[in-house]
Amino acid sequence: MDYAYAAEYLFSPAILNAYDIVGFDPRGVSRSEPIVCLSDKELDANYASDSKPDNEQEFARTLIESKKFIQQCEKKNKHLTSFSTANSARDMDILREAVGDKQLNYMGKSYGTFLGTLYAQFFPDKVGHMVLDGAVDPTISNFQQGLTQAVAFDKAFASFAKDCSKRSDCPLPKDNKAAVEEMKKILSQLENKPSKRLSESLVLLGVAAALYDTATGWPKLRIAIREVKEGNGDKFLALSDDYTGRTEEGDYTANEFDSGAIIDCLDFTDASNVKQMKEDAKVFAEQAPLFGPYLAYGGLVCEYFDTPQATEVVPTKTANPVVIIGTTGDPATPYEWAQGLNKILTNSVLISLIGDGHTGQGQGNKCVDGQVDDFYLGNKTPMRTTCG
Fold it and tell me: DSSP string of 170-181?
């Protein structure tokens, strides 16, 4: 029996008919010994808290909250340093062996591309048909990762604003710079006056969530911006709740916040310190005026977590070519990361999708989807291609 393993996957009906699909939770995630640090109420407070410290008092409070988070994680979870993606990649080979496959057929999207990259490094001869869509470049620093992502989100907002300006229901000014300033004004008005659980951080999270998907996210964002300007933040809360897995009852259906923070600390060690991060924040604000100030301190909790040395990713040649997909306007996994991963996996093939939104396969582009189907079903490795 042929199996395809998947993380954050979406397969065509033809592939579903040809393969038995094995989905799995990496260690520390969801039902796989989940890392749980915060209660639902604490998660509410954390998501809503100020992620853009503007003065020393706010920054001091952010440091206290970051340290407390790690302390709670270490108190509530055993063997916390064992939950790295490198260990999950080794787990994945146990799954491959358990079902009797000689090689791994795998599709990984977003974070799942890093899982696939480490598997390829550890077990290059075991790589069968592997597609990595919305790639993470694991060789760049935490600072560069955060900055590149912040810039990509700002570019995605600019694309949204440009599209919005052509529509009669657009709540933003037609000029892009003016649209950014309008969005910053909305955020600043909520900075010290949160209402109905709505805060500037949750509004920005709602904007980010909407930018993942042009087909459904962009229309929702237009409505959310118009309504929040009228004093109604429900649509932004809906966007942020959907992204974080929060139910109407206030429960969280996933542990992505806790597990994501810990796993990131284990996967990407950096030589930066708090003082350096404060300096770097100025660069974030300059190069990504909208998202930069909020993403600049994304790795702050790691300063209080004593982690082992992260796995170094080196150039790797696999038994079979790996297909990498990068979308030029991807806000969450910038296109540059796909180009970087293409160099790391030395016999990989890059499919470039000219467009917006997060990831490329399964988004309705026949050029991308057709090549992925042919790769899995017809054993046809794509040539380096650009799809419009």
Answer: --S-SSHHHHHH
